[in-house]
Structure formats: C-alpha cells, structure tokens
Amino acid sequence: MKALDHQQQLFMVESDQLYRTWIEALRHARSYRYGMRWVSSKGRQYLVRRHDARGNGKSLGPRNTETEATFAAFTEGKARADARLQQLSRRMKEQARLNKAARLGRLPTIVGEVLLALAASNVARDFCVVGTHAIHGYEAMAGVHCQMELLASGDVDLLYDPRRRLALVTDKLEGDGLLGLLQKVDASFERLPDTRFRAANSNGFMVDLIIPERDLQITEAVTFGADDLVAVEVPNLHWLVNAPKLDVVAIAANGAPVMMRVPDPRAFALHKAWLSQQPDREPVKKRRDRAQAVMVAALVQTHLPALPFDTASLKFFSVDMLARARSAIEQDSDIRLPGIDF
Q: Which residue intervals define the domain PH in the entry (predicted)?
C-alpha cells in the first residue's frame, strides 16, 4: 500500500471539488433539455414546457406578456446553464489530463464511463458499486494506492436496494432501462441470453445487476424497462445493502474524476472476510476474498481512523458474522480488531 505524494493528493482534492461542481452544472443544464416552445391551437398560441423525450409537456397558458417573459427567462437560463457546463467540462478534460500524467488513474475506464452515465441520468445514488471495484473508492478516501493485482476484475457489480421505488429509477432512465444506458456508453453491450442480470461488451467486460435475497413471497422482478437487465438475488447481501453508503470521487484510468457510491469500507472488509470462510465458495475466490478483506481492514485502520471497527458502528451485522469475519481477518495477519468483542 503506497501513500500518494503531495502533488497527487492535490490533484485528488481538486478532482473531487471539480467533479461535484461539474455534476451539479450538468444536472442544472439537463433540467432545460426538453425545452419550451409555442404551440398553436384553434388560432391561439400557448407556451408548453416539455418534460420528457416523447414530447409530453404542460401548457403554461396562452401567449401574453407574462408567458413571453417566462419564455425569455427560460431561454436566458438555458444559455447560462449551457455556457457554465461547457466551461466546467473543459476544466474536467484538463484535470483528467493532469490526473493521467500524475498516474492517478486506477478505475478501469469502462467502469468510469458507466458511472458517469449513471450520474448524468441522476441515478448514481440508486446503485452501489460492490465487489472488487469498490476498493478504488476506498483508495481515494484514504489517499493511497493498493496492490494492483488484488484490484483486477473483468466485471462490476451494481447493487440495487429493492426497497426503493422502481418507478422513480425507470422514469430517470426514460424507458431505456439500465441496458439502454450501458449501450449509450458502449453500443456493443448486450444482455447475455442465459444470465438476464448480466450485460457484456465486445471486450468481454461484464456489468451485473444484483439485489439481496428477498422473502419468497416477493416475486416482482427488479428491472427498469422492456428487455432490460433483470436483477438476480444474491444470498447474504443484506449486510451490504443495510450498511452506510459513501459517495467517493475516484479517478478512472483515462484520468477522469468519477463519483462512485460504495458501502462503508468496514462492511466491505468484514463481508469479504466472512465470504472467505464459506464452505461453498470456490477456493480461488476464497483466497482472494480474504486478501482483499485484510488489505481494506489495514487501509481503514491506518488511514481512516474516524471509522473504528467496533460493534456500535457495525450494528447491521450479526454477532456470529462479526465473530467469523474477525477470526478470518486476524488469522495469520498483523491486523487486530479488538473493538469487535462480545
């Protein structure tokens, strides 16, 4: 684990600040995207504010001094929003160039592009990145770079909380679903025929839509459009879905700052440690799970002291799970978690 140098730390701070400003500018500019126009009906003109890509809208009234002022204010506001977004987008490109030169880029570019697309559609906070790529978020939080061989992965898992209202996400994705969003990033993404929860592009990179296992009485499919990905239920994810979430700006391999929502790093480490002890887990995956658990636990203890491993902070885990995870992390390592005591 290597700490970032002062120049890299500065670029990380600047990237975080710039991204948060840019995404707000993007959302503001997108609020104007469907436009406002005059529509003629029965010999009169009416001002209509469109609210979706299908042309649906709402009439704001007949043409008069008031609606003409509304239209003028909308046009002026749109111009200002577009100009601000263009300026910030240029700064984002320059920052990406600096980040790449400083060797800050860690997250695979395709993952960064998917996360940027989620953010542009205002659904970034509806999906949590779990699995290996979440570690890039923890690196960014701690200001370190971890062993790259433990971060390599050919897929990204997007965890959705099925307790959230599906209709809200579906509306934001404008009927195209998650698969449609992926295809805007890379047209080669296709849903795999035998695994409806997974899409893969022509390079073999995969995106999985997952949810925690639900009660048998709940049969509603979690999907966001016709022919879209359909989430698969994965056992024992309830710990991660109930854990606190953090929104972290990481750096993609092309230098672009991207926001990713990740579970609390303590939850990640403990869940990975617990997985490494499961008898039905593949041996290769079990070894990798434990190595990642130890690495993230060390990262938290060394660089994120505000996040203690104690039972008061980890109430979303069962006592048995915490005991098994602690045992797995402490075995044959220098990590000690005395706060997880009963």
A: 1-31
